[in-house]
């Protein structure tokens, strides 16, 4: 049986649940269904289970704009974020609209019928199911859930210990009293170091090059004060959210307009945290602030662990693995029982599914992003991608609001199809995310990431205030979007029908 809904959402993580909630909040009157490959809500926050897993953005801006994050923690741990997303889904009646264990393999748009046809594999039974919809929304994020980025290390076959990747953390991994080397310098690595140091004999962070790191208080002092003053949670949330959005933007702008001053301030703060006993070369990157994503640590936990001697940093290149550890180019040898390869993500679009329009298979790299949300020349498709220089959810919320505006506009005008059509010269060679960051995973993902444009709504500038005005208030019919009234040929199910897993 073919199942049909107005809006088919792929992914039940932060973006997918948010999109479903907005469909209800904005009174779109559209039926929807979510296909989720995993067996639980949460996406990233259900997948990653390594020690200390937490957000790398403050919760005032990482939480949904329409549902306050109740708490004073600046950075929340994975289980609490997952619970927050689950509770949001339950509050808005989204959970009953999710079909778990379904992996989208192919999405085909048929202009004659005016519908999307999606093939999804039920990974528990091995059967392929067919879904059709008027609109398709990709909320799968931008990385491959099956495999993280894991380079082949020279001589690793000699190593007698265990090599693990944070994306696939073994539930039974016992690192008590073990010597651990964490390869990497990003958010995952700086989270793992203090989290593992209490049980491990010693933890070493091995990095090829340093990352900018900033320490934040574990608890937001303003949030604590407002809670003590019994200010209503919704008011405190709105106030804290506005403040943190402004602070994020100001920090980013300073780094772009005066990178030398920004770097000086950041490094001075780190120097005050680590003290005189630790070489600052381990914390002095060769690039400007925000050329790569800034890492944050609550209460300076990483620095405290280093000062206490429970962990150390080695900045060098790997010459080879040995039976008992890693030998560096400098000749230094790091003894290890466990090596954690915190080497990043493998970028993937739409969960790796094949995308077709009228029988032609499309490569996402050849498409241009309109307003960072629609893809050029692909009708009735939206892809949610959050910010790279601020909290993911800020952009996801705005994009969902825009999509609902678009749906309501189309209903009022009697339109059934919409497509963003670029003109010659609108497409640039810069990736949708590559224009902002030079991180390794961004560079590796260039082969699949859609392009951004050269002007107007095709240009991605990662500016919340600009996007807020454009997505909430900008004209829907701007001469770029083409609307149509096509036929639909699909079997419908009522919007109120519960499709359980």
Notes on the protein architecture:
The protein is of the alpha/beta class and 501 residues long. It is built from twelve helices and 25 strands. The strands form seven sheets. Strands 1, 2, 3, 4, 5, 6, 17, 18 and 21 form a nine-stranded mixed β-sheet that branches. The longest helix has 25 residues, at 233-257.
Summary keywords:
single chain, 501 residues, alpha/beta, nine-stranded mixed β-sheet, five-stranded parallel β-sheet, 12 helices, 25 strands, disordered C terminus
Mind sketching the topology for me?
Layout: E1 3-10, H1 14-25, E2 32-36, H2 44-47, H3 59-62, H4 78-91, E3 98-100, E4 102-110, E5 115-122, E6 127-138, E7 162-164, E8 179-183, H5 187-197, E9 202-207, E10 213-216, H6 221-228, H7 233-257, H8 259-274, E11 295-298, H9 301-307, E12 311-315, E13 318-321, E14 325-328, E15 333-335, E16 338-341, E17 354-357, E18 360-362, E19 369-370, E20 374-375, E21 381-383, H10 392-413, E22 417-420, E23 427-431, H11 440-444, E24 451-453, H12 464-473, E25 481-484
Parallel strand pairs: 1-2, 1-6, 2-3, 4-17, 6-21, 7-16, 8-9, 8-16, 9-12, 10-11
Antiparallel strand pairs: 4-5, 5-6, 13-14, 14-15, 17-18, 19-20, 22-25, 23-24
Helix pairs in contact: 1-10, 5-9, 6-7, 7-8, 10-12
